[in-house]
Amino acid sequence: MTDRTTFVSTRNAGAVPAPAAGRGVPATTPRAGRPRRGRRGGNHVVAHIVLGFGGLIMAFPFLWQIIMSLSTNIEVQSVTPVFWPAELQWDNYVRVFERLPFFSQLQTSIAVTVIRTVAQIFFCTLAGYAFARMRFRGRGVLLALVLSILMVPSQVYLLSQYQLVQGFGLLDSLAGLVLPGLFSAFGTFLMRTAFLAMPAELEEAARLDGANPFQIFWKVMLPLARPTISVLAITTVLWSWNELLWPLVVTTFSDRMPLSAGLATLIGDRTTDYPVVMAASLLAMAPVLIMFIVLQRRVIDGLASSGLK
Amino acid sequence: MTSTSHRPGSSASPLTGRAARARPGGSPDRKGDPQPPARGRIAGDGFWPWLFVSPLVAGISVFYFWPVLQTAFYSLTDWGVFGGWTFAGVENYVALFADPSLYLSLGNTLLYTAIVLLGIPIAVYLASLLNLPGLRFAGLYRVLFFLPYVAMPTAVAMVWRVIFNGDFGLLNHALALVGIDGPYWISTPGAATVAVAIVGLWSSLGFSLIVLAAGLKNIPPEMYEAAELDGASRSRQFRSITVPLLTPSIFFVTIVTVISSFQVFDLLYAILGSSNPVLPRSMSLVYFFYREGFVTNDKGYAAAIAMVIFLIIGIVTAVQFRLQKRWVQSD
Amino acid sequence: MSPSFPSPARRGIAALAGVAGLALALSGCSGGGGAGGGSGEYTAPEDDLSAKITYGVWDQNQVPAIQENIDAFNEEYPDVDVTVNVTPYAEYWTKLQTQASSDTLPDLFWMNGPNIGLYGSNGQLEPITGAVDAGDIDLANYPEALVDLYNIDDVQYGVPKDFDTIGIWANKALFEQAGVPLPEGDWTWQEFQDTAAAISSALSAQGIYGGAGGMDGQTTYYNTIFQAGGSVIDGDTSGYDTPEAQAGIQFWTDLIASGGSPSIQQLTDTTGDQWFTSGKLAMYWGGSWFRSAITDTDLAANVTVLPLPTGEEQATVIHGVSNVVSAASKNKQAAQALQVFLASEDAQQQQGDAGAVIPAFTGTQSAFTESLPDANLQVFLDAADYAEPLPVSKNSAAWNAAETELLPQAFSGQRPVAEVAEELAEQMNAALAEE
């Protein structure tokens, strides 16, 4: 039975808050419930075919990567593709652990990713809320400043950030690795849009109860923004996990590098052991993938049900 | 219930449990603060906004804005490879706008972006399929589609190189089955950009899909029921209900995709390879920047390129925002 | 709330930028870098020297051998702690430049021919004149061509730690299959062309080729240019506009035209070494480094090495990596001690025995030839006698890019070789003039 509550929100059914619509659109919608299109059940066949085919295309390179990781180097480089190796070379995986300080690097990757994600969530939600809901002088200027950062490719920052980190004496340290990525213009923008879309009434009610702005933020607005925070978390985790150039430049000791950088060092000068690179890449991908599989239901349903904009 | 919507079942103030008394206008509240405008902005909060905003703004200023200023400055100089500079005025820019490589890389980047943007309608369609009620394996499909987004670029690029191989690659093999003679993807100028764009599309589809699928879930079923009762066909419903209500998400995904496509670099480098003869003709804007900055070592010139990239992306984004009023439904 | 960029904000930004820019200009931003170069003085340090140094390299495959060297070094200097930092080649130079710009270069690091000019002439490196004068490094022990490579403006910055030359890796089984006899001893260009074409036509049904060109100058066209009596770079000008260089390029155009080699397009998609390891190429012009790709594989039994064919003269390209010390290093003594050690006969012998590279020190290369005893690897060592160093300049990358862009048109026969070569020479001279 559908929830007969309000319909105004229907006009705002969109997913993650789009940067445009800041019209005080309610952040929540009535429980969508199960879409009542069950009568069209027959079309599932078509859906399965299309989705299955699409899924295969998406997954195919990984399947091949798995096959490559179990082949010999010559088979991988063979001019006519080898679809199944003569012998499954499981020791390629063993060699990954011989060639890389895998667990140290895994730890570093996890540490860097967690720190950055938490920091970004914290800083970006605070700033996003302020930009969306608070009035202060220079708000427009600061906002444009933050936005403009998005338009510059990241390689441009390399030299300057390196000099800054080196100036702070933070080369080769976790702090140096993590530092620039603690702040995100994209995250701020995202959170601002989410907060813009929330109803004013709750805030007002809280104010009337005598809450100070931080309490309003912490107790009222932040919980409402959870779905968007999930999106921010996913993007930050993935970006941070796969980031290559910055960690390579900023670290010297191989056990202080994250996995992404460690993986790249496996690429030799003239000869590369490709199967080992493939195996390492799959192993490096595994943690994030597992995290996504475990959380995907929560994330998607969270994203959808409690109402993104 | 009236027209204000709210979290189901909770009209109480979260802090005290008292029923909220929304007062959009009228009497001043008990603190004596000026009446907040109807849109719910809290005005004149003194130092609070600054408290909220400063960590982020400080961090961004130091680590991002300062480098941008530095770059802008160096674009006006002849910047030595290892430091040291001499002022050069607008020399770099004059040379840049006369450089065919700029327009070439801009063209390639636009082509790349256009192809990757094709992923958005595909994602809309797939998302609608994923959203069918009672669809089995929906979770599995979601994971499969998200895989490329999780992957490490280096390894993936290697696999795709093999797929695109002109003589022995799977793609040409498949095309041959339907009678098409596939080109040498990686070593032909136009085809190379298309090849990289296909991989770009492949890897970005997952994110768009997730965002759009979530957006779809928010469209209340009542709308569809009402339309069904009015006799609208499925495709009509799709066109008139689904797509319009999805436009804010589509807009968001478009902005993000355009900005990141304009900055394509790693993918290009990994798939084509640095000693590829067609690379000079297939380079993207950021690759052009990288080449001038770190290979040819003309850092002042590279800084000018960076500023121009900044300008281009800024203009494109601004245009998108203006157009948005026309096609994006917002309340 | 309007989402478009508010114009007051734009003005605000412009103002901010203007002020900051002015401040920058006035303060005379130093941006680090511009190290004044070292003096090159050297005295062997005491055994109890204590320091922590970093050693920058780009090849993970060589790390075990390097570690052996370092362990031996620590026997003499137990308190010097060496950290090896591997950065993949693709990012190595980007990282190095970033480090150089703030004077944080590794204390000791690898340098190669294309980049020595840039770093040497900008004062980033410490010369080894002191060590040479003290007799700790004797330049006569290393291939002369390479020693000259690391000499910039009469200052020696390092000695080669390894070298590689070019030869032809041949697949004996394919020769047999095609019914073509394996060449003995030295041979001419024409003989090579005929052999390649013969094998290609005999085995064309299986898509097998006799020889292969490609865009890697070091293994292909630089060699033939030298063999024709020409040069790629002559002092400060390009050598491409000479008939000799053009003959060197014509070699490959002829090879592709006769069917002896796959086309340039095919070779871009699938590189020569891949054709060879897949058993689809009978003769591969490759470097001595290729040996590690085929050791312990089935292919190794069928492989032998032939010398490059002779044009007007016999020639090959030689190149090797050198260890150099950063001029701004804070642990110069320790770094130099390591540099001297790595150039010593013992360390070089260790490198040779470990098998990753051919060590540069004369007489330490036996392990290399013994690694594939039936493959006649001696050819690579002999080639050092008639080798020319890899053509480089202070900013090689600038004109390397022009080569990569223009030469395929010559190789594929799309445009006449002379025309392409003239255009290339023009672009190259323009790039060289800017150095």
Task: Characterize the structure shown.
With 309 residues, chain A is an all-alpha fold. Chain A is 62% helix and 0% strand. Chain A has one domain: MetI-like fold (Orthogonal Bundle). Chain A has 14 helices and no strands. In chain A, helix 3 (91-99) packs across helix 14, helix 4 crosses helix 8 and helix 11 runs antiparallel to helix 14. The radius of gyration of chain A is 24 Å and the shape is globular. Chain B is mostly helical. Chain B has 2 domains: 49-91, no CATH class; 96-327, MetI-like fold, CATH 1.10.3720. Chain B contains 14 helices and 2 strands, in the order H-E-E-H-H-H-H-H-H-H-H-H-H-H-H-H. Chain B has helices at residues 48-74, 91-97, 100-117, 119-130, 138-150, 153-164, 170-177, 189-217, 221-229, 234-262, 266-272, 279-282, 285-295, 299-327; strands at 77-79, 85-87. Chain B is globular and about 75 Å long. By secondary structure, chain C is an alpha/beta fold. Chain C folds into 2 domains: 51-163 and 319-363, D-Maltodextrin-Binding Protein, domain 2, CATH 3.40.190.10; 166-317 and 391-433, Periplasmic binding protein-like II (D-Maltodextrin-Binding Protein, domain 2). Chain C is built from 19 helices and 14 strands. Chain C has a 5-stranded mixed sheet. A 3-stranded antiparallel sheet of chain C has the order 10-7-11. In chain C, strand 1, helix 2 (63-76) and strand 2 form a beta-alpha-beta unit. Chain C is globular, with a radius of gyration of 25 Å. Chain C starts with 6 loop residues before the first helix and ends with a helix. The chains are: A mainly alpha (309), B mainly alpha (331), C alpha/beta (435). Chains A and B meet through helix 1, helix 4, helix 5, helix 6 and helix 8 of A and helix 1, helix 4, helix 5, helix 6 and helix 8 of B.
